[in-house]
Task: structure prediction
Amino acid sequence: MSSLPPLLDGMAASMKAMAEHQRVISENIANSETPGYKARTVTAPDFSSLVAQYGEATGAPHVSRPHIELSASMSALGARPPQGGGRIVVDSDTSETKPDGNNVTLEDQLLTLGQVQADYTAMTNIYKKQIGLLKLALGRG
Result:
């Protein structure tokens, strides 16, 4: 648990997730010519712990992320568990696969990178405004 206010803690977690997404995109781009490489992406961060802080007192808000486990029949049909770390998964939204099995498309990766960068910039601006409001409330702004 952080000593930051929950709003700033959530923004920090979101920014860390976007930084990780940028890292995964750069790995995809670096491996765009590697035979058999499958593009990866990062799942959205789980903010249920932030909501649960408020739900304990009143019992009102509740968020839970579904967890799917592979059954034997799913594995028999060819389903595979996600590779990599906990939130890094194989990207299922690819536009093409090359004859060598590589499915990284530079155009798709650059579009995704642009969206992540725009989201990161927006979150940075919101963070700056929140810090300014806190300074103003403390009489230092």
